[in-house]
Design brief:
There is one protein chain. By secondary structure, the chain is an alpha/beta fold. The termini are far apart. The protein has a domain of 103 residues: GMP Synthetase, Chain A, domain 3 (2-Layer Sandwich). Helices cover 29% and strands 23% of the residues. The protein contains 17 helices and 27 strands. Helix 9 links the parallel strand 11 and strand 12. Helix 1 crosses helix 4 and helix 3 crosses helix 4. Belongs to the ATP-dependent AMP-binding enzyme family. GO terms for molecular function: ATP binding; CoA-ligase activity.
């Protein structure tokens, strides 16, 4: 995709006998395409200048003059330390200079970032992107083996790690610096580089095109195996401008946001790590989510806006009334990363009638964006929906059996097209071809329908991923771990609905003859090899795993069996 395109061209069919798309739904019956009906104002138009990089765009939106050092960008909830927009601007330049001159990081080199949320996270991202290097972020909860896989797959030349996570990177052999100074002083740190002598050197102009790769973020995608999602500067620049647009319709200039969404995730990185910096708001950072700390932050810093996930909304509904906390400042809560049920949405509105609740939908492969409720009136009227297509987006609803596009109110797979759609899966032509068709349409793997007003409803996931607390858990990965156990002959992993976390992974296991392997032993075996959010939470023992003639696991049969067993117990 070239940097000159505002969005990829939409194919049109020659049949002109049918009416064009309706004013309310955006559906074109000639092409089967749903169009976003929102036109961007001039100030939010997507830049077409080809030699523009993400860091340059973000930094150009910063306050200037005295206001730059007066306006706080981030506050660390645990330490109360803060950083202004002016400090981020200077620190990003100093770090970029140090990376270029001191560590010889060049355009196209991959920098691996392993850290929880911190007030330095955005500085690191901006420094890496400004010199044309490629950013790849990782979950601090990941194990050594998971970290090693990503370091190897991404081809990282340098790693930047929080001190507590350093032990996971040492075995990889990748050169590593720390985010903050260590007590033994053995490792160089970002803080030292920012404060060092390199800041006085001039940073040479590095020609970066919008078509160049900016980031590689890891997602289980639509086929269940962890893959590197390659995002270009054009992808990120587009989503930055769309976030500015969404802030215009859902936030005030002096709003205070709360960030517990991890910045390594597409949701947190695009929203807090980069996007909100274009708006000039203040964000209170939490290193990790904790319900009580969240309530303290809302009251202490008069938080107005919380981009959240369904489990957090569930916790607010279930526990907030039991806690004495002033939440009168709260005006808006967003929901993303996983579906929010109609019932939970309605309960939230009953408990917090003055707080707007707006759901959205997106994928790592679409830079985290696709649909959004620009109006709280629409959001309240359609509690089970996830909004309308945001500007620059088009969609198709494809019949799973026939492959034909469907009109409003018909269920099919959601396909998306926009300038935010990823370039490819890193080094995986087969997965890329299976996910993006020859015309640039992203096949989301989600079953949906779009109504006569252009509102999108996600019905269920066609793909087999499990959504636990907003994280994606691939059954295939857990099955691989299970099958490595000497006493497990066969295994399958399925999602089980859970009120608090959305879904939990449940394993069905075929034990070796004569084995007395227990549920707890299986759970502990898996827990020792994967991140906490991927842990198997329930185990069922079975004589054989149901499979098709082609050998594919019949997960629906197992899901039905798990539901039957649950009902029987009741």
């Amino acid at each position: 995709m070239s940097g000159e395109e505002i969005w990829p061209p939409i194919e049109e069919e020659s049949n002109t006998s049918m009416p064009p798309f309706g004013n309310s739904s955006g559906y074109n019956s000639r092409t089967g395409i749903y169009h976003s009906l929102v036109k961007l104002e001039t100030k939010h138009e997507i830049p077409t200048k080809p030699d523009l990089n993400t860091a340059s765009l973000v930094l150009s939106q910063f306050p200037t003059g005295e206001l730059a050092d007066a306006r706080i960008a981030f506050i660390d909830l645990s330490t109360n330390h803060s950083i202004t927009y002016g400090e981020i601007h200077r620190s990003a330049y100093s770090l970029a200079t140090a990376l270029f001159h001191g560590l010889e990081i060049r355009k196209g080199d991959v920098v691996f970032l392993l850290s929880p949320n911190s007030i330095l996270y955005s500085t690191i991202c901006l420094a890496v992107l400004s010199i044309g290097a490629i950013l790849t972020t990782a979950n601090p909860l990941n194990t050594k083996s998971e970290i090693a896989k990503q370091v190897h797959d991404s081809g990282a030349k340098l790693a930047i790690s929080a001190p507590d996570e350093l032990h996971k990177l040492v075995p990889t052999g990748v050169p590593t610096i720390l985010t903050s100074s260590s007590s033994d002083g053995k490792f160089l740190s970002v803080e030292e580089l920012i404060e060092g002598c390199y800041g006085s050197q001039e940073l040479p102009h590095v020609p970066v095109e919008q078509s160049d790769t900016a980031a590689i973020l890891y997602s289980s995608g639509t086929t269940g195996v962890s893959k590197g999602v390659v995002l270009t500067h054009a992808n990120l620049i587009t989503i930055m401008k769309l976030l500015c647009w969404s802030a215009d319709v859902s936030a005030a200039q002096h709003d205070v946001f709360l960030a517990f969404i991890p910045m390594f995730h597409i949701y947190g990185l695009m929203f807090f790590g980069l996007g909100l910096l274009c708006v000039g708001v203040t964000t209170v950072l939490m290193q990790k989510y904790d319900f009580q700390s969240m309530l303290v932050a809302i009251e202490k810093y008069k938080v107005n806006n919380i981009p959240a996930v369904p489990p957090v909304i569930h916790a607010l509904v279930k526990h907030a009334s039991k806690n004495r906390c002033d939440m009168s400042s709260l005006r808006r809560v967003g929901s993303g990363a996983a579906p929010l049920s109609k019932e939970m949405s309605q309960e939230f509105r009953k408990m917090f009638p003055s707080v707007e609740l707006r759901s959205g939908y997106g994928l790592t492969e679409s830079c985290g964006g696709a649909t959004f409720f620009g109006s709280d009136k629409d959001a309240e009227a359609h509690p089970e929906a996830c909004g309308k297509l945001i500007p620059t987006f088009c969609a198709k609803v494809i019949d799973i059996e026939t492959g034909k596009p469907l009109p409003p109110h018909k269920e099919g797979e959601l396909w998306l097209k926009s300038a935010t759609i990823m370039k490819e899966y890193l080094g995986n032509v087969e997965a890329t071809t299976a996910t993006i068709d020859s015309d640039g349409w992203l096949k989301t793997g989600d079953l949906c329908y779009i109504d006569e007003n252009g509102i999108v409803y996600i019905v269920e996931r066609i793909k087999e991923l499990i959504k636990h607390n907003g994280y994606q858990v691939a059954p295939a990965e857990l099955e691989s771990v299970l099958l490595s156990h000497p006493l497990i002959v066969d295994a399958a992993v399925i999602p089980v609905e859970d009120e608090e976390t959305g879904q939990i992974p449940m394993a069905y296991v075929v034990r070796a003859a004569g084995s007395e392997l227990s549920e707890d032993q299986v759970i502990q075996f898996v827990a020792g090899q994967v991140a906490p959010y991927k842990k198997v939470r329930k185990v069922g023992f079975i004589d054989s795993i149901p499979r098709s003639a082609a050998g594919k696991i019949l997960r629906k049969d197992l899901v039905a069996q798990s539901k039957y067993q649950l009902v029987s117990k009741l």
